[in-house]
Write a structure and sequence with these properties.
Blueprint lengths: L2 H15 L13 H14 L15 H14 L1 H13 L4 E10 L8 E2 L7 E10 L4 E8 L8 H12 L4 E4 L6 H9 L3 E4 L15 H12 L1 H5 L1
Parallel strand pairs: 1-5, 5-6
Antiparallel strand pairs: 1-3, 2-3, 3-4
Helix pairs in contact: 1-2, 1-4, 2-3
């Protein structure tokens, strides 16, 4: 992620957050510095206490305060919706998931049926046809994909405004999921179980697989 993209996201966050009251002590850190620190924290897994303030980054404590403030105000959800609206194009929705081991335990972990029952966490991701992530959810590794489909789909609809086609593999096979898509005017292409081998996504799979790879690239997420 280059500086221009960070600067764009920082501008949107500042606009959503609104003016901040000046208080005693140092002036608030620039949002772009907070984002640069967050990027390093996620990608490199650097501990909070090892994040030191520099010209281009803030300290770990400053990052935590910013994240807590944004979570309390619901800023990041607004920012995601605005950024996706700026890039809105392909009305196709593609849904998939990926699992990671929960080496240190923690919340939202469970025995992974695809990894010899070892404890893990599953990331559920929904992207547009051109690869823009629009919704995500986190569950224990033993939670069936079908149970998360409604949450992902409704979150994606709220961001995309219009969904024309939905692609998903057989992990999301359920008539209720297909009915939900049709109720919003979307044509479901959800692969059915006990059909010939294949994911059912065909050549449409790569955008969501790329997004899964981006998620797993952030080492901090795997540390739990």
């Amino acid at each position: 992620m280059n500086f221009r993209i960070l600067d764009l996201i920082a501008t949107v966050i500042t606009s959503c957050e609104g003016p901040r009251k000046a208080g005693p002590g140092h002036p608030p850190a620039a949002t772009v510095r907070v984002l640069a620190t967050l990027r390093r924290f996620l990608r490199e897994g650097t501990p909070w206490r090892s994040l030191k303030a520099t010209e281009g980054m803030v300290s770990g404590s400053a990052l935590r305060r910013a994240l807590e403030r944004w979570a309390r105000m619901g800023v990041l959800a607004q920012v995601q919706a605005l950024l996706v609206a700026m890039l809105r194009g392909d009305p196709t929705l593609i849904v998939d998931s990926c699992s990671v081991r929960a080496r240190r335990g923690g919340d939202l972990t469970g025995p992974n049926p695809t990894d010899k029952g070892k404890r893990g966490t599953k990331y559920h991701v929904a992207v547009t046809g051109d690869g823009i992530p629009v919704a995500c959810a986190v569950t224990a590794a033993n939670v069936n994909d079908t149970l998360v489909f409604e949450r992902l789909f409704l979150s994606a609809v709220a961001v995309m405004a219009r969904v024309a086609t939905v692609f998903a593999d057989k992990g999301y096979h359920a008539e209720g999921n297909r009915d939900l898509c049709r109720s919003f005017g979307a044509e479901p292409h959800i692969h059915k179980r006990r059909q010939p081998s294949g994911s059912g996504l065909g050549g449409r799979r790569w955008p969501v697989e790329r997004s899964n790879a981006w998620v797993l690239e952030n080492r901090r997420l795997a540390l739990r």
